[in-house]
Every structure is written in C-alpha cells, then in structure tokens.
Amino acid sequence: MVAKITTATLVGLEAYKIEVEADVINSLPQVVIIGLGDTAIAEAKERLKLAIKNSSYTFPQTKVVINLAPADIKKEGTSYDLAMAAGILAKEGIIKNIPEDTAFLGELSLDGSIRPISGILPIVCALGDLGIKRVILPYQNLKEASFVENIESLGAKNLCEMVGFLNGECNLHTLKQDVSDFLSLEDNFEIDFKHVKGQKSAKYALEIAAAGAHNVLMCGVPGSGKTMLSKAFVSILPQLEKSEAIELTKIYSASGLLDYDKPLISRRPFRSPHHSASAVGIIGGGSKVRPGEITLAHRGVLFLDEMVEFPRQVLEVLRQPLEDGVVTISRASQSVKFPAKFILIGAMNPCPCGYLGDKKKHCTCSDFQIRRYRSRLSGPLLDRIDLQIEVPRLSEDELLSIKEDSEDSKTIRQRVIEARKIQLERYKNDGILTNSELSAKLVKKYCKIDDESRKMLKFAISKFDLSARSYERILKLSRTIADLSKSENIQSSHIAQALQFRGLTSH
User: Fold this and answer.
1) How far apart (Å, rounded) are the C-alpha atoms in residues 463 and 460?
2) Where are the domains of the chain?
3) In terms of CB atoms within 10 Å, which of 108, 134, 453, 456 comes out highest?
4) What band does 187 get if pLDDT is binned at 50, 70 and 90?
5) Does pTM top 0.85 for this prediction?
6) Which superfamily, per CATH, for 193-416?
7) For residues 295 and 468, what is the distance between their CA atoms, to the nearest angstrom?
8) Cβ pair 444, 490 in contact under 8 A
9) What is the DSSP letter of 75?
C-alpha cells in the first residue's frame, strides 16, 4: 500500500497542498523522486538515506519511489524532506500510523536533526484553511507558526522526536501566541520630528501623507533636510493592525528575511534602496520569483533618495503598483501576485547642481540641463504622487537654534492615529484602510464637495490641465486634510491646501 503524506509548497505568497506518495519496488536499491522537483529535491536522496541511518532506523534495501503530486506544479527547496522521510519510515513499518489531517514541513540534516525553512507562516495559514488540523515542523519555526489560530503547530528537533510522537511515545513542543501582544507603539526611533529644524510646511505635508497613506515628492537644495524628514516619517505612522502584521510577516517569511527568534514584523517597514538597484530588485522577480523592494515596503515606506538618479526604466515600473497596490510578475511558466500598498517618498534636487531657486548659491545649470534632469520623472509618474513639496534652505537662525521648539513625533502621531481611526470606521464595510485606497466609485461616495469647492476645482482643472487621475487624487488628499481637521465634509479650504501640495501653483 502506498504511503501518502501531506505537505505544501509556496509559489510567491500562495501555498499549495502537496501529497507525497512513497512506495517500494523489489529491485536494486535506489531512490527515485518524481513530480517536477528542482535540484534541491533531487539532492534529498542522500539527505534522506543518511538522516534515517544516523537516527538508528533502517533504510529500505529496495527501490524507493517518491512522487510529489500534483506533478504539474514545480517544487522548489528543501521543505519536503520531512514528509518524504515520514513516507519512507511508514513503508518500513517504523511509523505505525500517520493521521490524514497532519502535514509535515522541514529540511533534514545528515544527523537526523530538522532544520528551519523559510515561508512557514503563509504555508501553515494555507494548510489551516484547507482543513489540516495539525502540522509537524522544525522546532526553530515554531514561534512563527504559533500565530496561526486554526491549526495546531508542533515543533520537532529531530526525526526521533517525530517518530516517537506519531507512535504515541512522546509529545512534541507546542506554542500559541497572539499577534496583538506584540503590537505596541514605540518611541525609540532613531530620528524624531523634534530633531528636524524648521521646515514646518514639509512636516505638515508629511503628517497628511501619514494620515491618508499618500505619496510624497520633496524637492530642495542639498542639505535642506529631505533625507532626515523622510527617515523621521516612520516615527509618526500608526502601529500596524493585526491583519497588516500577519500580511507583512508572510512577505518577509517567504523572502527568507525573518528572524526565527523574533518572527513577527511588528513595525512598519522603511525600505531605502540605492539608486543602482535594478528593476527586478525594486519590482520583484528573478529565476525563483521573489518579492522586490515595493513588496517589502508593503504597509510601510519606500524611500527613493536622489530619485531622479534612478534609471528611468526602474522608475516607470512603479506606475502600475502605485495605482493598484499590487504587482503581477508574469513568467512563461507562472504568474505571481505580490501586495504593494506602500507610501512612496521621493527626494530630489531642483537641478543637476542642486541650487536652482536658492537664495544663497547661484545655479550654474543651463535651461537644457534643467529640463533634461527633471524629465527623468515622467508626467504619468508625477501624476501618481499626491504631495509635491519644496524644501527650502534653512535660515541662519533656524540652523543655530538650540531649542527643540517644534512638535515631537509622538504628538503628531496621535493626530495621525485619530485621522486613521476615522477612516477605519468609515471604510469598515469597503475592505480598505486609508483614503489613498479609494476607488473611483468610493471617491464619488465619500468625497462629496460643495458648490464653492466645485468652482475652485473647475478653475484648477482649466488652468493646470488636470487629468482625471489628478482630479481624483486631489479629492482623496482633501478628504485626508478634512479628517485631520475632524471635519465631516470636505470644505473649500481643504481643496485649496490639496492644490497647493500638489505643486500646481508653481507650474
């Protein structure tokens, strides 16, 4: 009788149930693994032989055939080792019984110990949804799996522990943890807004961006504080919701970036790739499709310092994710979707020399150089950036000021949290969290304006040739400004502020 063991594989962030079938044939000793596996799975033959032998069990002295079904899904990695070993041991009669509702995950060492694997959280979540009641996995992955509520996770350190448990001779390690216990607001940020001198207008713009999850582009002379403002931005973002924390942890788990001792992403990510990053590094992909920087920045911040220095091709791939909040990577054999709802913060100089419009230093660039420099940011990309602000040089008094007279991040964050709460309540039945996620249909429903605001927008559309996308984004931005001022309806003053922050008055 064929031994059938349940395991799973990860394709992108989606997990699929895999059935490991093991049988023996009365022939020359050999291990054959079929079912569209990669090199790591082919190499499992030697790991299985030695892990079973060094655990003091007998390996079949016949031909062993292992099938990974369904055969049309490509299997990658070493997470199938434990399931294959369980199948072989069941055929040898060493394991008496394997329950149908139990799954196995883990890589084997030559000495029989079980090594941790990446992608445990998304796999265990999927197995729980498929009706699996119990999963046996590496002990080092137990903390990560303990956040899944609808499945029992059992940690095994080696093959002997797994066999003993299945034969009713011992118990495995178990753990249950609540995500909420690990989510709390922290104030130990490297840079606080009170450390940033001056720049009141830029700080207010970033407060609006944090409240509604809007994209920002800061333009200013070198040394005006653009990078410092961007790094301080994470200190005013609200704490992660429970669902956001699980979603982020799944991404980092699948990417192999999770710390086994601290297996929950409890703070919003801040990703700052260098301008030499490739399009694949930013968007995701590769021979084995992995999340890129925009997915690793999900529900957090993607900061592009010296934004115009990024290759144009790299910047243009951001257009679709900025609009849809998801990126689809298509290959000949598969298509993978990754979430990408991030806040883009870009920083740039106004010209190649950096001093266009500066009161202290004279710009040495020609009109052609300035146009070519700014043209690296295309119109469609700029159309997707809600707040486009200037960050001027600090005055002598601001630079020499010793007092920290500006608001600290904690005070600003409290206002952001209150605005987010208003949005959570408003959109509780719409499946979104912030104003920036509003669809065209929801903009009509929640961004109603009065006659005075309508006249102002009509004038702006006429003067600045606003696109339909720009119009909608101005309404979303106005909705956030209204939420910060605790106004139920959008007023003309909110529209005026939104137009100023879109950088339209300088065009």
Assistant:
1) 5
2) 3-177, 193-416, 438-507
3) 108
4) low
5) yes
6) P-loop containing nucleotide triphosphate hydrolases (3.40.50.300)
7) 27
8) no
9) B
